[in-house]
Each structure stands twice: as structure tokens, then as C-alpha cells.
Design brief:
The protein is mostly helical and 245 residues long. 76% of the residues lie in helices and 0% in strands. This is Putative membrane protein.
Length: 245
């Protein structure tokens, strides 16, 4: 890739948070459009280096190019995060019920505090999952109507962060409350290590996706394009589904 176009595309990439594969597809489309424009100038008699610089200038500021792509990329990120919340939060809650179906020293009757905290965690996880499903449906409806999903992506991030924080806080409190008995036995057992490892991996994936959704939503809300979308940046029907995550 030539220097002017390479620098421009790198700048747009820096300004675009979101799913890596979808972003790569959009940037490839932008690069192709810039090269096509540069080649058209070369055919018109403009020197190659000047043609590339002119193509970049005609495309407009990198901020405007990023703003043209951002709504679609934000919607993709929001949908990806919503699916993770809908699957992982209720799923992890069910996963933590499995050890209590297996005989072991961790199966001692829980004290009232632990029981109450467990109900809070279950309620938060199920509520977050239901909200995520509802937001996925709203995002699909917004896509059909050609409306941005910035606020919905932000809502996914906020709901997910709240539920994640409640679940983590209550889980730590339960471990502390049972530190001298069931919790210690569970933490050193094979099932405890397995469930704990799966939980850590899933929690890291979820936390990263939540952070990306909030970043994408804030960036999309703060910046709007000040001029028409550059070549290759116009949204094409069905492209979101084709690019995927």
C-alpha cells in the first residue's frame, strides 16, 4: 500500500473501535476505494504520488471517514456483546449449580447470607440475559429500519457492567462467608478448579466485550460526520450480516 493511503487508513483504524474482523473488512473496502480513485487520477495524467494524495484529500478528514463507518461497526459490536451477555451470564449461573449435584465436602448446607446472595446473583444474571435478548431484537429492528443502534449498544454495555459487578461482588462475598468450610473444599477440588477456570475465561471475554461496546457507543455519540461519506464508506444493505464479527 502506498504511503499516503497507508497513513490515512491507519488513522481511520485508530479511530474505529469495534470487532476486529468487521473493521478489517471496512478498512479493506476503504483502501480499495482510495486506490481506485488514485488510479483514475493517474489515467487522467496526474503523477502517481500526487494522485494518491489527491484521492486521500478528496476522501476528507480521517475523522469523517471513521464517523461514516462508526454506526455500522457500533451496531455490530453491540449485537456481539448482547449475545455474550444473553448466553454467558445465565450459562455461568447454571454452570455453578453443577458442583452442588456432585457429592463432596462443598455440599454443606449454606448459611442464610450465602443463600440470599445466591438468589441475588441468579436474579441479576437472568435479568441481564433477558434484557440482552430484548436488545438484540431491538437492534435487528433498528437495522431493518436503517436506524443507528448507538443507544442500544450503550444500553447493552451499561446493563452488562451492572450485572457483572453485582455478580462478581456477591460471588466474592459468598466465598468469604464460606471461607472456613465449603468454599475452601470447593476451591481445591477438581470440579472447583474446572468451573473456576471456565468462569475466569468467560468473564474476561465478557468484560472485554462490554468495554468495547461502551467505547464504541461513546465514540459514536460524540462524533458525527460533517460531510458526505467518503468513497467506499456508504453502507450497503446486508453488509453487516456478511462481515460478521
Amino acid at each position: 500500500m502506498s504511503a499516503p493511503i497507508d497513513s490515512y487508513v491507519r488513522r481511520v483504524r485508530h479511530l474505529l473501535p469495534g470487532p476486529a474482523s468487521a473493521r478489517a473488512g471496512m478498512l479493506h473496502e476503504l483502501s480499495d476505494g482510495l486506490h481506485d480513485a488514485a488510479q483514475a487520477h493517474v489515467r487522467a495524467g496526474v503523477p502517481a504520488e500526487d494522485a494518491e494524495a489527491r484521492a486521500v484529500a478528496e476522501c476528507g478528514p480521517a475523522e469523517d471517514a471513521a464517523a461514516a463507518y462508526r454506526p455500522e461497526l457500533t451496531a455490530l459490536q453491540g449485537r456481539h456483546t448482547a449475545m455474550l451477555v444473553a448466553v454467558l451470564m445465565p450459562g455461568l449461573n447454571l454452570l455453578w449449580d453443577v458442583p452442588w449435584m456432585i457429592p463432596g465436602p462443598w455440599n454443606a448446607p449454606p448459611n442464610p447470607v450465602v443463600s440470599a446472595l445466591s438468589r441475588v446473583v441468579t436474579g441479576a444474571d437472568l435479568l441481564a440475559g433477558c434484557c440482552a435478548v430484548a436488545l438484540i431484537l431491538l437492534m435487528m429492528l433498528a437495522a431493518r429500519r436503517g436506524r443507528p443502534a448507538t443507544s442500544l449498544t450503550g444500553a447493552v454495555g451499561v446493563i452488562g457492567v451492572i450485572a457483572f459487578t453485582v455478580t462478581l461482588s456477591c460471588s466474592v462475598a459468598m466465598m468469604v462467608a464460606n471461607a472456613d468450610g465449603p468454599s475452601r473444599a470447593f476451591a481445591t477440588s477438581w470440579i472447583g478448579l474446572l468451573v473456576g477456570s471456565v468462569t475466569v475465561v468467560c468473564a474476561c471475554l465478557l468484560a472485554r466485550s462490554l468495554a468495547r461496546s461502551l467505547r464504541s457507543a461513546f465514540a459514536a455519540a460524540a462524533r458525527t460526520p460533517s460531510r458526505p461519506a467518503p468513497a467506499g464508506a456508504a453502507e450497503q444493505p446486508g453488509r453487516t450480516e456478511r462481515l460478521g464479527r
